[in-house]
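Could you show me just one protein sequence together with its fold in token form as a worked example?
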Amino acid sequence: MNHDPDGESHSKPLAGLRILDLVSGPARYTTRLLADLGADVIAVGDDRDDIADGVRQHNKRLGRAEDLTRLAANADVVITDRSEDRLCADGLVETTLRRARPQLIWVRISEFGTSGRRSEWSGSPGVHFAQSGALARSGLPEKRTPLIPPAYIVDVTVAVHCLWTVLLALVATARSGVGQTIQFAVSDAMIHALDPPFGIKGSVLGAQNMSATIGRPDAAGLYPVFRVADGWVRLCILSPGQWRSMFGWLGEPAEFADERFGRGDVRLAAAARLYPLIAAHLASMTRSEAIAAGQSRGVPIVGVDSLAAAASSEAMAESGVILTVVDGDGRCHREVQSMFVIDGERVRSSEPKSGLDWRSAASLLDQLGPWSPGSSPLQGLRVLDLGVIVAGAEAGRLLADHGADVIKIESRDHLDGSRLATLATGMSASFARGHRNKRSLGLDLRSDHGKEIFRRLAEVSDVVLSNFKPGTLESLGIDHPALSACNEEIVTVESSAFGESPAFRGFFGYGPLVRAVSGLTHQWRYPDLEEGFGDGLTVFPDHLAGRLSASIALALVLRRRRTGRGGDAKTAQIDIIMNAAAEAIAELDRPQGLGDAPRGVFAAAGDPDQDQWIYLEVDGDASFRALCESMARPDLADDRRFASASRRVEHRAELEEIVKVWTAGLVAETMAAALQRAGVKAAPVVHEVNLPDDPVLVARSAFTMLAQPHYPEGLCVHGAEVEFTNLGMPLRHPAPLLAEHTREVVADVLGMADDEIDALVKDRVLFVHEAPES
């Protein structure tokens, strides 16, 4: 094991990694995350002033175009969204650079990939929401148009997915000595990382064993929002115990006394009777009264805040994710800090600095030293997975997919919320998709002997993952300080909903509550409908939280390889949303442009039961003229009412009526392809259930089948998430039944004898799998 020559055991994880940043626009957030983790990112653009602006450039250095070839020759990673012609004109030929540096990782970011029938399409947030399947499930039932979510969700999804991609490539390259060429498509990132249609679902949907479907169920009923005297509150009642608390708060109405109402699907079916009762109960309370009363009883309830209110809240200031900064003119503004808290310190945000060359020290890849390769990039990495529900499942699943031995620690007495969704067979499709490739160890962490066994496991493991309330691991005696006393190389990554802000201490941590508190729910709504909150079906940002945990776990493993010491990282879902909205927060006090028109979702021809829509947007006069030509209405381009973007916005309603009549007679997919060829950004509103049959995704092996016991035909799951040149498909071993591998794990890892295991099972310190009663 190599050690940090300067003895800086708490240095940033990616210190010394040389990244040449040749991206523009939203893609710059990807390289910002790498810079936050300590990579030396040098951004080179056409215009120095252009690349110096915006929070996406913080913690980077700004290079000069005339130094481009010299920088590229010494880079470990090149990340670019430039065309091949442009790169060649700049003197950057990947094959030439790779001959001089075989370890080079070359990441090419494009909207729809470089092959396939959509490779020439132009993208935008609306286009990607539509094409990924996310838009088809956003909003209220089919009687309303699908609801376009806030655009910044696309940027953070792409950034976190690309971060995971680069970290995985770094580990693979460090082990093999062979670099990677990565074709990274924004469209694929949206499918695999935002709300994976064939991944683990939230507790409510998972409980119904739902697969991807066509249409939008009544999302408002999943995590309902209720009016109170001075605003709105959201409830997120998942467990039977939480329902019992709500039932008591309502005065124990006899109509809902049956124990069956402890199940989410039963309550949802009775929403027409139950929700008016809850609404009447809350109507006269203020937000603070309702939240205090509910939380004190154990009812998961929070307020629904605007983005401005969230950004200005004491809770965000306490957590350190938003700082009030005074500029040179004495004006105060809000500045969003990094989402990473490493070794107890939040990474700070700083303005980009000038820099013409790499630091003189050896690069990170050169410092890592010999590392035996494996058949999978993470082979030999042992992970103790304490994660639960979606975010917890996703972190361990990503590591297990690429060869890590991920041991899911669980207890029969305190089931993972996603285990509550299992069927009589003991395995739901949702759970299987979120826990494939793992082993299950039944262990009682509330007993002293169980904690001792966990610490023994930690002595011979590499990573511990969890996503409990802050302080939970400390109360169990298995937090990072306790585990590092047993194993100084241990890496711990804790993910939570609200982080360590005192304002949320003790609150239940679920994604729908985080979205409400952060301002996202308030933005994700129909503007003309008072109760039109449309984020009920999304699991955002749970999947991103899991992906972020897996990424930083690998970053800390790389640092450990260099320094010989482990580390601790903490992330919070609310920090993910605040970082995603960083530019929107910075612009809260600035006048906003009016945009252009028409832009939105329009009904298309086809069977009404198939919910057919197209998304299209005009962006400038040339785009509008192209739309007019496509509609065979060239006269509109010369109409004075529509002569400029501001005039088109003024007459938006008239334009939308014209477009609505035109789209109603055409097939969405055909129409979108024609508009893209003409120069108009457009996409059919794709339903998730149809994604596995898409020829472009089939060619990329984006989906595959998992042979899972109790599912004779197998389960459709996510396959290759990115196109790598030197990385195989994810592994496809079935998900474990509860405590299925207990004997195997403690025997193989700890060397326990059969009689010792039997005694621990008898004392309920260990649990072994028990087949459900027929």
